């Protein structure tokens, strides 16, 4: 019985020590870096500091307990041309945000406007006077009846 109490106490002590170590200032977030996975063109002229401030990173909190999905959502809402590929934790105190630029692939004519989209059909911008040629996105013209039966309506209506 005494051995069980000693083992349970030791395990509890190790767990408490582990939690304290993880919350210690050595593991608190001190820096955030941006790493570009593709080249930046005219479409993505944003400073790294603006991207970092858009993510609203919690500087000073333990690096292990950050919600990377929340950061990704905030950064992608800040600029639709930014695609967050990954947010990497670099121990002990840094996050690296790997981003690439979304490319204009499709132009969808819908509700009197032309929605410029990437390969995932994410709307990047709306252009009222769009002219299709060989150097810009492919223009997709959908009939109203056809578009009602696709998931494109729900994507475009966001």
Briefly say what this structure is.
By secondary structure, this protein is of the alpha/beta class. It is built from five helices and seven strands.
Number of helices: 5
Shape: elongated
User: How is the largest sheet built, in terms of strand order?
Assistant: 6-5-4-7
- Give helix and strand order, one letter per element, not per position: HEHHEEEEEEHH
- Class by SSE composition: alpha/beta
SSE topology:
Elements: H1 2-23, E1 31-36, H2 48-55, H3 68-78, E2 82-90, E3 94-101, E4 106-110, E5 113-117, E6 123-127, E7 138-141, H4 144-148, H5 152-156
Parallel strand pairs: 1-3, 4-7
Antiparallel strand pairs: 2-3, 4-5, 5-6
Helix pairs in contact: 2-3
What features would you describe in this structure?
There is one protein chain. The protein is an alpha/beta fold and 158 residues long. It contains five helices and seven strands; from the N terminus they run H-E-H-H-E-E-E-E-E-E-H-H. It has helices spanning 2-23, 48-55, 68-78, 144-148, 152-156, and strands at 31-36, 82-90, 94-101, 106-110, 113-117, 123-127, 138-141. The chain has a four-stranded mixed sheet with strand order 6-5-4-7, with no helix packed on it. Strands 1-3-2 form a three-stranded mixed sheet, with helices on one face. Helix 2 crosses helix 3 (68-78). The radius of gyration is 23 Å and the shape is elongated. The termini are far apart. The mean pLDDT is 83.
